[in-house]
From TrEMBL, chains A, B:
Lineage per the UniProt record: Bacteria, Bacillati, Bacillota, Clostridia, Eubacteriales
Record's protein name: Ribonuclease J
Organism of derivation: Acetivibrio thermocellus AD2
Positions bound to substrate: A232, S233, N234, H364, V365, S366, G367, H368
Record key words, sorted: Calcium, Coiled coil, Cytoplasm, Endonuclease, Exonuclease, Hydrolase, Metal-binding, Nuclease, RNA-binding, rRNA processing, Zinc
GO biological processes: rRNA processing
Length: 555, 555
């Protein structure tokens, strides 16, 4: 009897059917390795949640098999969960210099730096992780030092793009290594895993360099202070601001904690080229005339606590917006942040600043490949099987459609959910079973202690507030000896609703009387009768449904 | 001595520096009239609020002067506050037939229909309101029967565009009456008040008719059921769906309460042309083959309770999405709704539907004028003074910039806040003083009973939940005879946090002990000592700040 073929398993634990928390497991026999380990930002209904990390219980259950974690680039949605995950699963981490430089900072903040093995790789390096070989291939994205991965497995080669665009004129170093992609494609690729973020956009994504040209034009005509808000991690963007500042004789001040951190790391590691003395302390900006200053700041997404938002609302300690300031928001709002950004723009205009934002000039380009770039990748790699990754369902679906248009057979394309297992041999692929996958919510110091019940209660409280009714009864007789006292929060403005509060007490008393009449004396029955009576009364009176908490104290 | 010149006052009570709740007051001597009276949708931080209406205390204080309310068109942000306002300020209302037809429905729902005087006007009609004459001028917008207004006042003519675009090929009736605008401009206009919504868009807004052409193309190629989601109020859009259905032999079913209502009103009043028998009952859709059916539905904004959202999530009672269904979302997401719409698109794709949405085809056009249309209005009206209206501050500011580019002097342009008073004579204009203006929050049956304190509490509860601590003490001795009992909601999952709950009780006991030691026996001191102790303990342990409610019962 022929030996049963062993199979390769590819298991996305995040990043499919959602934006963020990218993480994928590759497993063959006794070997597992992981690509990326990112966070997602909380959805609107995750009230009070700080961030979301992937459920990695599948990995901790198989911890003896896990050979390492490979990182494609240093964005939060690809490395941000590591400080949480490495506490539980301490395995070697591999990534390029800047990626690990950014990770180091995070680990240091979490007090983890000394416990973790970080292995710096260069482009074209090949590492071995059990039976896997992983080659790092130069790529281009909205952060420096990003890589694509060729993963050589016992059943064939997998090509994983990571997040990417095809930028023929990157700011630093070489463009994406198309020759190597072509070579891999020629030798035969079993599975392509390709970024789907911008699959809805026609044509090509513009080169990062075009933004620099816009900066030059703006800087040339500016007569006052310039402030530029952008993503802290976009080192190339920041370099272009630096270049424009040099060209037009301005000093640079850096504002916002993450901006300061990233610029420091990038300069230390040689990813930015900044002449001595160009960067000045933010405390010294007023020593220079306005036309000699550029301030680079966080807050391009209108985040409420960010530097730019504070400047716009007049709450920033070091920078005050003055009429004539020119503010450039060099970013597009991430879906969900549109109103936050809009508020900042309004506030800046009100303070007399000029504001250049998305609808006004080419001051931002995306870091993700548009349709024509995706087509190029598909044509070069010519995979047998295809799994669209990094995107909501609609992106994955449309990326699948694009592959079909390019001639792939639909049965060779796998739109996956997180936790689903794709099993591959050298001549077959199918979805077979699933493993634990999902989200773990981080709230303050708590990791995973806020679940659906807590969120449901927060939602309920946020909509109509709360009524607490407290009654003290005598244990022996069941007689009420204090209360009902009524406390409300987030329901109505109490001072103007004293009559309503009095009525609430009456409703409680009547409900209690009913309990006594019917000899319903156990506490939980009493509580539920009070709750029902109050709920009906309040809905009738106000058409609102506050949370009702009856509390009975026995003495 | 010369008699002091009387002045015209123009006072926006809403719609400037914000999107929605449009309302403007015109006052001269003892005469006041009002243009529009709309709602705004709650901002993200107005938790639990249903809608926002303008503060009209300035009008109720001057109620004997108010001659009437003039409506420009039937959108919620122009008529939606009337059911609340007319209860308090019952004055005659003037508007075109469809506008008042839509208003009638609202008033009926609020049981107000019999108490209100509604006066139907036609385009070119002139009405008198005290010393004012108001002429209704045909306009085009994303709802039928919209009007601009020429307001003849003792100090000069005001031209108010209302919401508008310049559509040379409207679906029904004549285009906007440019000849009359030119004539007014030639005779001299003192003040232009012009819609600023789309001032950030270059060029021209496309004609509504272009959407019909896209529908035709899509319908021609569709082989299965078609569902179209759009704004219920866009009667012309719905008419174009009807036209395509007729052309390609499909029956129509209507879904969603507001869609049914508007179609009924529009058909009754002659604004839609629908052949007998074309519309079928939603219960009968399965009697026809899929290629013979179009379903027109609400939910184009992904509103959680809307028909399309329910269909997408499988919760709709009458319509189940089946693979092959073609869903057209004929609308753009209003800022803030992007993620809701995205979720619906994902869910529809998952159910096997094809979905055509904003990034895919020309299935929607805006109802507001872009830059070139605005320029045409400015050139035709040639006003002495200009007040940009309908927009956030950035829109107003950029509209002002556009007017300056067209040659207006900046001192003749007034960017106003709501409540500010613009005083005009026939040769002067200045901002002089202000009146009460603002927002009134509607939550369930409550109008204005939810204010900042209630919202702040809802926000607090939504972020970290709540801890209630109840203690019963003996009045005479101050001894604790029951408790502390701890109840938490929305904080942590209690079953997994029993240790924490026990620690909370210990912290309370220690705090109480401290009170006794220091002889601090008044309740409010005790409560605040407990609250502080718990707050510090919980932040240290969890980095969260739940609301803490200490309750002391005395027996």
């Amino acid at each position: 009897m022929a030996k049963k073929k062993r199979k390769l398993k590819v298991i996305p634990l995040g990043g499919l059917g959602e934006i963020g928390k990218n993480i994928t497991v590759f497993e063959y026999g006794d070997d597992i390795f992981v690509v990326d380990c990112g966070i997602a930002f909380p959805e609107d209904d995750m009230l009070g949640i700080d961030l979301v990390i992937p459920d990695i219980s599948y990995l901790t259950k198989n911890r003896e098999k896990v050979r390492g974690i490979v990182l494609t680039h240093g964005h939060e949605d690809h490395i941000g969960a590591l400080p949480y995950v490495l506490k539980d699963l301490n395995v070697p981490v591999y990534g390029t210099k800047l990626t690990l430089g950014l990770l180091e900072q995070k680990l240091e903040e979490h007090g983890l730096l000394n416990n973790v093995v970080l292995n710096v790789v260069k482009h074209s390096d090949v590492i071995e992780l059990g039976c896997f070989k992983v080659e790092f291939i130069r790529s281009t994205h909205s952060i420096a030092d990003s890589t694509a991965l060729a993963i050589f497995t016992p059943v064939g080669t997998i090509f994983h793009t990571g997040d990417f665009k095809i930028d023929y004129t990157p700011i630093e170093g070489e463009p994406i290594d198309l020759a190597r992609l072509a070579e891999l494609g020629k030798k035969g690729v079993l599975l392509l895993m390709c970024d789907s973020t911008n699959v809805e956009r026609e044509g090509y994504t513009m080169s990062e360099k075009t933004v620099g040209e816009t900066f030059d034009e703006i800087f040339m005509n500016a007569k006052n202070r310039i402030l530029v808000a952008t993503f802290a991690s976009n080192v190339h963007r920041i370099q272009q601001i630096v270049n424009a500042a040099i060209k037009f004789g301005r000093k640079i001040a850096i504002c916002g904690r993450s901006m300061v951190n990233v610029v420091n790391v990038a300069m230390e590691l040689g990813y930015m080229n900044v002449p001595e003395g160009l960067i000045i302390d933010i405390d010294h900006i007023n020593k220079y005339p306005p036309e000699k200053i550029v301030i680079i700041t966080t807050g391009s997404q209108g985040e409420p606590m960010s530097a730019l938002t504070r400047m716009a609302s007049g709450d920033h300690k070091k920078v005050e917006i003055i009429p004539g300031d020119l503010v450039i928001i060099s970013a597009n709002p991430i879906p969900g942040n549109e109103k936050l950004v809009s508020r900042v723009v309004n506030d800046l205009f009100k303070k007399g600043a000029e504001v250049i934002y998305e609808s006004l000039a080419d001051i931002h380009v995306s870091g993700h490949a548009s349709q024509e770039e995706l087509k190029l990748i598909h044509r070069l790699i010519r995979p047998k099987y295809f799994m669209p990754v990094h995107g909501e369902y609609r992106h994955l679906k449309r990326h699948a459609n694009l592959a079909v248009e390019l001639g792939m057979s639909p049965e060779n394309i796998f739109i996956m959910d997180i936790g689903k297992v794709l099993e591959l041999t050298n001549d077959s692929a199918k979805i077979n079973g699933s493993v634990n996958a999902g989200r773990v919510l981080v709230d303050g110091l708590g990791v995973g202690d806020v679940g659906n019940i807590v969120l449901r209660d927060r939602k309920h409280l946020s909509q109509d507030g709360l009524i607490v009714v407290v009654i003290t009864i005598e244990g022996d007789t069941g007689n009420v000896i204090a209360g009902p006292d009524v406390i409300s929060r987030g329901f109505v403005y109490v001072r103007e609703s004293e009559d309503l509060m009095e009525e609430i007490r009456e409703v409680c008393k009547a409900a209690l009387q009913k309990c006594n009449d019917k000899k319903k004396n156990d506490w939980s029955t009493k509580k539920s009768i009070i709750r029902d009576a109050l709920r009906d009364f309040l809905y009738e009176r106000t058409k609102r449904r506050p949370m009702i908490l009856p509390i009975i104290m026995e003495v």
